[in-house]
Amino acid sequence: MDLDISTQAKLPTRFGDFVIQSFLQKSPQKENVPQAHFANQPKEHLVVLSENIAKILAQNLQNFEQNPKQDFANKDFCVQDFSKQDFKKVDSSQKDFGITDSPNVCQKTFSDFVPLLRVHSECLTGDVFGSQKCDCGGELALAMQKIAQSDKEGRGGLLIYLRQEGRGIGLFNKVNAYALQDKGYDTVEANIALGFSSDDRDYAIVGGILEYYGIGEVELLTNNPKKIEAISRFVRVKRSEIIIEANKHNQKYLATKKAKLGHLL
Ligand SMILES: [Zn+2]
Question: Could you give the domains of the chain?
Fold first, then answer.
């Protein structure tokens, strides 16, 4: 996976103080898809870390920089499943970051607790404009609250914000899908009518990001079984539900998510 990683910056929010870092994903050209298509555009993702987690990661980097050659693999503080992964330096100029399984370096990070994780796919209409057609904005706010609260309690977590608008079809197609929904299609039927699958999201980058931070186990805030399955390929996952109240506009959407996409609502 071809990733560029920014340096970190502070982000005070109405939920609490966070640290942010951006990952630039250069998509490989997909076959049979025009180059200008959303799927082939580079994507800028955002990771929002609670202060406690950011501090642990910084300490971890420092330990690694002081002892880059040390073999920690058999030390009892190592977390077993990711004890042999490489830990890479945060550097905005870093190129070609990929999932590796080579060096014998244990990054002690989260052996004392499991961080909360929300993997949130971009929904411009819901996250920014307060759309009530879906539950994205409410889920995003609730996840930020939960992570901030958890940080106050000495734990903390991170939110990985993936720029895959409209379950991976892009904003332009999403608006066309909404127009079909105005004519009575449900969210799945509309995507399919436009030539997409019911869910085109891709979580591969989450594996790269979690590996980069040396996180081997998470408490995942989600109702989506596909997301649990996808992220379980990279780290140990314990699921925590994230439930917001339905309104008259999104009742049908939530019912479709439950019936057709298997969401645990
Ligand atoms: Zn949404």
Answer: 3-164+201-260 (3.40.50.10990)
Burial of 248 (0-12, 13-18, 19+ CB in 10 A): exposed
In the structure, what pLDDT confidence band is assigned to residue 57 with cuts at 50, 70 and 90? confident
Residue type (1 letter), 62: Q
- The answer to whether 201 is a known catalytic residue is yes
Residue 125 Cα to ligand 1 midpoint, Å, equals: 6
- Map residue 172 onto helix, strand or coil: helix
Render pLDDT for 126-167 as a digit per residue (tens, 0 to 9): 999 999 988 899 999 999 999 999 999 989 999 999 998 888
Measured in Å, residue 138 CA sits from the centre of ligand 1 at: 9
On whether the CB atoms of residues 49 and 70 are closer than 8 A, the answer is no
The model's pLDDT over 210-259, given as tens digits with 9 standing for 90+, comes to 988 888 899 999 998 989 999 999 999 999 988 887 777 777 777 887 78
Task: Please name the residues in contact with 65: beta carbons below 8 A apart, sequence gap of 6 or more.
Answer: 89
Residues 209 and 23: beta-carbon distance below 8 Å: yes
Q: Which residue has the tokens 């607790």?
A: 113
Rg (C-alpha) for the chain, rounded Å, is 19
Query: Does the annotation count 199 as an active-site position?
Result: yes
- The answer, as to whether pTM is greater than 0.85, is no
Rounded distance between C-alpha atoms, residue 251 and residue 137, angstroms = 15
Q: What's the 75 CA to ligand 1 centre distance in angstroms?
A: 45
Q: Residue 60: which of 208, 212, 205 has the closest Cα?
A: 212
Please give the sequence-ordered ranges of beta strands (E in DSSP) within the chain, or none if there are none: 3-5, 9-12, 17-25, 43-50, 116-121, 157-162, 217-221, 236-240
